[in-house]
Amino acid sequence: MPLKSKFICPFCFEEHKISDVQFRCTNRRCKDVPDLELTRYENGDESIPKMGKPTFKAPSGGLSIPKSARCPECNSITYAIVCPSCHNKLPESTLLGRDMIISVVGSRDTGKSHFVGVIINELIERISVKFGGAMEGFDDTMQRYKAGAYQKLYMDMQKLDLTQSSVQNVNNGAYRPLIFTLKLKHKGLFKDKIDSYTLVFFDTAGEDLNDEDTMSTVNKYICKSAGIIFLLDPMQFPTVRNQLDENTVSRASSVDWKQATRSDDIMARVSKLIRNDRRMKSEQKIDIPVAAVFSKFDAIASLIPEGSTVLENSPHCDEGRFDMADWHNVDSEIRSLLTEWGAESFISQVDLNYTNYSYFAVSALGLGNNPKENRSIERPRPHRIEDPLLWILKENGVIKASK
Ligand SMILES: Nc1nc2c(ncn2[C@@H]2O[C@H](COP(=O)(O)OP(=O)(O)OP(=O)(O)O)[C@@H](O)[C@H]2O)c(=O)[nH]1
Ligand SMILES: [Mg+2]
Ligand SMILES: [Zn+2]
Ligand SMILES: [Zn+2]
């Protein structure tokens, strides 16, 4: 991997030159000082700032940065590198590997938190392994994940609550992204080499995507993402809802569909945000890969024609590469379902705004695992949850595709 000159902070999503990183003293005996950057990042009160060990710029060493630096206060050596704008500790892969921010967006109740909560466990236990790699959490990411979505879904076996707006809830999971390092082995000419990627998941509250002002401050990450996973709840289409019994629909939702924002509106807002950030004209298409994904596939599986590829298990992991024939079938099956369900306006929104997009369908909980009225579920056994992510990784050249 070539040395990078810039990086995106996985906490605050600001872009910086590598040479601008700072160090933080790690000597326990060094005196704490007010940390305004971290206070600001955590939306705290600047008049009663958070305290922390001193941060400082490393003595300049040209383009690359030294591995360690000496604290100007106590003279001890530190290896801890922090972001100059938010003072969060940066993972090594941020400095050496590729930044892969995956945005998961969609209106309220479309299944974003369940998607993220389940795909992380799958990535760690199955997907990364099948692709000859490993994924591990950075800093307190695993603790936060295990105490949050994992505890609820895999230990308590309960469905998750809707996510609260991060405007008021600084400490909720939607505010601090989940940060992982994905390591993949690539066959080199003479020996295998290992590439590392910083994989960042940000589980937005659908509520925060309703308003442009909130979006531009909270959702900077969308503009920097390597791919956007746009979730759609199929039961928000009247034609689908009318073919299912009421009980199935209500168990697969947490709010009444009438309260949900239209997916086309969210798509329009997200696209406008990216264009503003990149100073693009409104007729220019955005080149970030967009996976438009039907969630809660288990609830609508009965409506899918027998013999459809999307009913079969995902083949990519077993093949250890992205299966193009399977992808092509699923994409065209979902496109024709969307047309059948009267979602032409969504299709044209996607087409008008993006150069590279594809359609998928997933279930985070799995076939026959629609939550009970008392919110209980069986252990998640997802259906095709990896497809949209693997496609984004393929589009970014991270994994290979079958010919
Ligand atoms: N049957 C089924 N229901 C699901 C699945 N995923 C989510 N749901 C249902 O959809 C509801 C909303 O899911 P969430 O993941 O909380 O939705 P969200 O997009 O995070 O919503 P906000 O946080 O409000 O933006 C859940 O309470 C479940 O009832 C799934 O894979 N299958
Ligand atoms: Mg949520
Ligand atoms: Zn930062
Ligand atoms: Zn010190």
UniProtKB/TrEMBL annotation:
InterPro entries: P-loop_NTPase. This is Zinc ribbon domain-containing protein. It comes from Coprococcus comes. The lineage of its organism: Bacteria, Bacillati, Bacillota, Clostridia, Lachnospirales.
